[in-house]
Design goal:
Layout (H helix, E strand, L loop, with lengths): L2 E11 L2 E10 L2 E6 L4 H5 L2 E4 L3 E5 L1 E6 L15 H13 L3 H17 L2 E8 L2 H11 L2 E8 L5 H18 L5 E3 L2 E2 L7 H14 L3 E5 L3 H11 L3 H8 L6 E5 L5 H9 L3 E4 L1 H6 L7 H7 L2 E4 L12 H15 L6 H8 L1 H6 L15 E5 L10 H8 L5 E6 L2 E5 L2 E2 L4 H16 L1
Parallel strand pairs: 1-4, 1-5, 6-7, 7-8, 8-9, 8-10, 11-12, 12-13, 13-14
Antiparallel strand pairs: 1-2, 2-3, 5-15, 15-16, 16-17, 17-18
The chain binds zinc ion.
């Protein structure tokens, strides 16, 4: 039995911060108590969390992790020029590039306290291998695009089936069916995706209403707004995670709430690509499960959910509609992500997945009036000291336990320049 004990920390338990010890056995939180017995500690890896906050780990609910290899390659140009360069580089990527980009992104995510991420991309075997080796948890789906081409559609569906068959039944990998979006996928591909999702009992993960242009295109083609269009196809009969949802009207908002659709809000990417500000305050009010994502590193350029929390909260203040409280934003960054993908995590609770972040109470958290305020508004990211995923310590005292950082950086540097030049 693998046992980890966290002692002396200030732990977030059922919405309140309390002093407690945490016992983890075989990847699951076994006990949260005043003090764990000496006998149990003798046979365990013990993390001393005095002067630390112990919280559920962060969840990156929407990304394309291998794009770390392309970040900062093109900046400060109009969107269409930027996209052209990114697409050019992506078309040259192979599975090894994707593996290296994924490892780079995963290493960064571990360092910023993220235990699980949801990824949609190509050459997904590369991402899955990096997940297996690094020890992180992930939700993975092959991003399908057919652009009304029947041949391409068949290939894309076949690749999804192949990927699902290859990686099902892995402890830390959850799978999704990922048609890219209503404007890059034909109606047939969307319908086939619903069928696959039913057949394998997997959630659907899709980009929806990211830009005004996209809404216009979908309306021209179908006569409907994107959410209405998907609803009429029966898309929301399945568990769905819709990324972005920046441009949704009141009718669409009601559809999302009524059907239990989760929205992956990506505030930094939406700002960088000039997409707009999602109506998160209204979504929370309507009961939509909102979680946070970074989107790909090329349009962010970080993979930090700590960063997204602050921007999510501030952007709603900028809209001046209704304040979304820090505690709510923290939930979006943790529990809501796990909920969206049907995982029992995101809370420090007995029987839950042992995905835990330990934050040092340093300069930026002083004075500590309210830990939620400090974590959401005052974090730089360097507060993250340790990360436990699935009951294993992946970062200890800021050192990565499963990744050779220097070697990885050399490899990523080499592959990145090969792709871009
Ligand atoms: Zn995306």
């Amino acid at each position: 039995m693998e046992r980890v004990v966290i002692t002396g920390g200030t732990c977030l338990v059922r919405g309140t911060f309390i002093k407690a010890d945490i016992l983890i056995e075989d990847g699951i939180i076994k006990d949260i108590t005043k003090m764990i017995s000496k006998v149990l500690k003798e046979d365990a890896e013990v993390l001393n969390a005095e002067r630390c906050l112990v919280v559920p780990a962060f969840f990156n609910a929407h990304t394309h992790v291998a794009m770390t290899l392309l970040r900062c390659a093109v900046e400060d140009v109009p969107l269409m020029d930027w996209l052209r360069e990114v697409w050019r580089a992506e078309s040259r990527m192979n599975e090894k590039d994707v593996y290296t980009g994924a490892m780079l992104g995963i290493a960064e995510m571990i360092k910023s306290g993220i235990a699980c991420f949801s990824d949609q991309y190509l050459h997904m075997d590369g991402v899955a291998k990096a997940v297996e080796e690094s020890g992180i948890r992930a939700v993975l789906g092959y991003g399908m695009i057919d652009m009304d081409d029947e041949e391409k559609r068949k290939k894309e569906l076949k690749e999804t089936v192949r990927f699902v068959e290859k990686w099902k039944n892995k402890q830390r990998i959850t799978l999704t069916v990922d048609p890219h979006s209503p404007y890059t996928c034909s109606e047939e591909l969307l319908v086939e995706s619903i069928k696959l999702s039913q057949k394998y009992n997997l959630p659907l993960h899709i980009h929806v209403a990211e830009t005004k242009d996209e809404v216009r295109m979908v309306k021209e083609r179908t006569g409907k707004t994107p959410v209405k269009y998907l609803n009429d196809l029966g898309f929301f009969s399945q568990k769905v995670i819709a990324a972005h949802c920046v441009w949704v009207d009141d009718e669409e908002l009601t559809i999302l709430a009524k059907n239990g659709v989760s929205v992956a809000h990506c505030p930094v990417s939406n700002m960088k690509l000039g997409s707009g500000i999602a109506r998160i305050a209204e979504m929370v009010d309507a009961g939509v499960n909102v979680c946070l994502g970074t989107d790909g590193a090329a349009s962010n350029n970080s993979l930090s959910i700590i960063g997204e929390m602050k921007f999510a909260a501030l952007l709603q203040k900028l809209r001046n509609v209704k304040i979304v409280r820090a505690e709510e934003v923290f939930k979006m960054a943790t529990k809501n992500g796990y909920m969206a993908y049907g995982l029992r995590g995101g809370e420090l609770e007995e029987g839950y997945l042992a995905d835990i972040t330990i934050l040092r109470k340093g300069l930026s958290y002083t004075p500590l009036y309210n830990p939620f305020y400090s974590i959401v508004y005052s974090s730089y990211g360097f507060e993250v000291r340790d990360l436990i995923v699935d009951g294993k310590v992946l970062m200890k005292n800021c050192d990565l336990m499963t990744v050779d950082e220097e070697r990885l950086m050399d490899e990523a540097e080499r592959r990145g320049f090969d792709l871009i030049l």
